[in-house]
Each structure stands twice: as structure tokens, then as C-alpha cells.
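Please go through the sequence line and C-alpha cell line underneath and see whether the fold suits the sequence. See right below:
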Amino acid sequence: MTNNPPPLPPKATTPLDYALPAKRRSRPLLVAAATLGVCLLACMILGAIVRFSQTGSLATPKAPASSTPTGFSDWDGSHVELVKLVKKNLHDPESFEHVHTQFWDMKTHFVVLMNYRTKNALGALQLESVKAKCGKDGSVIEIMQ
């Protein structure tokens, strides 16, 4: 009987190879890639089944044409007619700068609160706000504040 030393394990090439036992290190990379591919395909099929069960079709649901109510700008969210009315009554209409608009739907009309920046008679910029009752058709019914 000869005293041969035990065989050396295969040489590790990556840090992950050191963490795996020698038997697992000898698995081909192709098998691991195939397993990953099968898992991804299974996830895609499962996602399609879930979407079909929720919507009744595999098509992506369409977004509404415009989520902005009538009379409001799609660009900055301001109420178009209210901006015209405010600009008409300013000392320097050219200095008007829309800051923020928020509204509340009261079923028959909107209550609109608009903040804007403008120059006063001395040329200094000041932050102003206006609250108005506006119709569903985009018209300004009355200035509330």
C-alpha cells in the first residue's frame, strides 16, 4: 500500500467558487444559465396569467385621454380663464408668473385656488393668491377671495 496524498480540489477562479463545495464548482455554467432562463420564463408566464385574470385581456389598459378637467392647462395646471381674468386686472400683466393651482370638485362647480407671482407698482415681486368659483365648462363664475 502506497501513501499517496489526497488529490487537490479543482482550482477556484472566482470568489464564489471558494464558497461552493468542489462538486458544485465542477457544474458547467451552461446548466446554471439554463436554470435561470427557465425561472425567468416561468415568471413571465405567471405575470401574463395574472394580468389576464385582472383585465380579461393581455393588452395594456389605455390611459384616459386627459386627466385634467375642462378649463385647466395640461402644461402647468393653471385655470386658463382665471389666468386671463387676473392678468387683465394686474398693474404689470407681463410680470405674471403662475406658481401653483389646486382645485376642489364641488359636483356642480370647481373651487380654484391659484398662487401666482407678479410685480407691484414699485417693481417688487410679490406672491399673490386668488380663489374663484369656476364652472365645469371652464368659465369663471365669481371671485371668492
User: Anything to note?
Assistant: The beta strands are 97-105, 109-119, 125-135, 140-143. The chain has a mean pLDDT of 80.
